[in-house]
Amino acid sequence: MIKYNPQHDLLLEEFKNINWHEERQQLKTSPLNKFPFLPLDIKIPTADRKIIFEQLKEQNKKMNEIPLFGPDYQPGANKIWFYGMRTGTDWIKDYKEWYKISSDTDIQDIDHLDRIMSKYDYEWKIECPELKTFIDSFPKKKLYSVEGGNYQPDGKAYVHHDREKFNRVSGDLLYGRIYIPIEWEDSASLYWYGFGKVPIESGRVYVLNTRQIHGSHNQSTEHRYAVHFAINPKTNKFEDLLKSSKQNFLKTF
Ligand SMILES: [Fe+2]
Asked: Residue 1: its pLDDT value, please?
């Protein structure tokens, strides 16, 4: 957890204003693992996205009371755990277990993580059929965790790279966090090293290379909701999706 410090605010403001023109141009010839993020050619149908949004709002109220999930972990933010491992105890302990594995375990690569994670049974902690249907259809070998997040108006994530070793290891292949902004104003912004402000489209699926430095600041007057999930992506279908998405993303430069 990052404790509040005025210098973090200053750093975030400076980071937001960097012009990454040259770095963006270099992406045209860069391998995928140098990309800060990638919008995928896949999107949640709007009607389903609206239902997921309502569920996130509903669950968010409940999570406010739990320090691990409520605003204590980042200023103005909450998280929600939809899907993950079951250890036979309660779900908060389950989450701590998942967090411990993804943060502290010295994971070598995705196969190593898969060996650790295949020891567990999994369950939907919070039923959300529209989200389940979409994630079931997403190309992957194995699903490990589905989380929701909410940044309140003026909520921030200071400039950082993700602590989870899973994200850092898998980030080598841009297999990092799979991220879906559910209901966003344009000013609910993410900023990424080497690119700047990420162009966000609600319902679009993004791969975020959380190994690279990033930060966020919700400057809108609305809460900003997102879902992200952790997978073993080693399938041909996912590789193909990355390749075609990269081509389409580069056309927008
Ligand atoms: Fe992060």
From this structure: 44
